[in-house]
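Recall the central idea of this unit: under ordinary conditions, the amino acid sequence of a chain determines the structure it adopts. In this exercise we apply that idea directly, starting from the sequence alone.
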Amino acid sequence: MRQRMYITLALIVLLVVVVVWIDQPNNPGIKIGSIDRKLDAVLGLDLRGGLQALLEVDLPADAKIDSNALEDTRKILENRTNALGVAENVFQVAGTRRIVAEFPGVTNPDEIVKVIKETGLLEFVDMQDTQLPEGTVIKTDYQQNSQTPTTAVQLTATPTVVTPAPTPTTAATPAPTATPSPTDKVWHTVMTGSALKSVSVTTNQVGKYEVSFVLTTEYTKIFADHTSKNVGKVLAIVLDKKIVSAPTINSAITEGQGVITGNYTYETANNLAVQLRYGALPLPLKVVESRVIGPTLGQDSLAKSVRAGIVGFIIIALFMILYYRIPGVIAVLAITVYGLVTFALFKIIPVTLTLPGIAGFLLSTGSALDANILIFERLKEELRAGRSFRQAFDIAMRRAWPSIRDSNIATIITTIILFWFGSSFGATIVKGFAFTLALGVFVSLFSAMVVTRNFMTVMLDLINPDRTYLKWFGVLEG
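Accordingly, the structure predicted from this sequence is:
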């Protein structure tokens, strides 16, 4: 029993060392081999500023907007911007035709807005013997799209992308010496980007960035058939009706994979990969308004919240120590462990901290404190009844547990309801509050039932107090 007690204490001490390292303000993060994980605290828009954009469906005012299509559009936008590294972004459907987007900490608003607006329709277009320069806008028989990206690229190896079409026999073949006008010609689309199995950013042998892609098994055969029948012909890669590359098919391409190369930085290559990976939006959007929000008010509120938290902690610590004496000191240590562990989890998950989220964290601190108070009040009652310290503490833990359990279950149920409400109605502020509160409650249970119990058990083993120590446990005789 004693051995187990000290092993648990050693594990708690080890946990504290780890979370203190994680909680460092300038933590270098985890870098092991290919793992490169930052451990920075993620602050929301109200605490560090960023970009807020109002998007609206670009259709006539009397057009009926499908709510499911609007929700799908929101999800695709979320995926796109997350892939750009804006992991704490927020997208909310507002009304029947608008989406509110928030990007905390964004330093290049134009880049985000550009990716939001682009649809990323990739086509493999049969140009037969016609070679048009990169950047030329053309028409295809798949569909029309006015959105055009700005990055020009070049294809090497095997081209790929999705959506099969009939064999490319409908495209007109210009005379070898004539240059057809892109506005007068309709070219045949062999495939579109919907057949892409995967898209990623890679580097070649000389370290230049490329966008590699792989077709699904079904479309690999279609692509192989086309390239087998059109050796020596031009197969243009067209993104949003703009030619980004027009390679000649030198041989049949049967592997269904290839790379798009060009003068890329990682950012431009990743932007292209994001467009191809997430495809076209179900609904066309336009940016009605975008503005950069400064963090001044948020920083002021955060500073006040931190000061209030420090003052509140000092007052609570003094109260617990003066009223419960030795158990009060142990409670303060347990609450400190609770705070360190909770903040470390916020950084590991990571949790986007907003003012409502911080409020949820501070509220959950009350749950951790309540659990200790229930245990220590029961301990005092058992000591007054004449029991030994060890017996009194064991009984106190056992009898306080039902009350601790029930109160925390009630809180967890409330947070589930709040989180569901926030998810259903786009109230992200409510979701943040509910999540931090629920996480704090779970950690508070660990703090009370493991940390407090172990610290008290070790203390009783080291001191082995008798009845003369009652006053040091907040019990006054007589």
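Residues 389-425 form the longest helix (37 residues).
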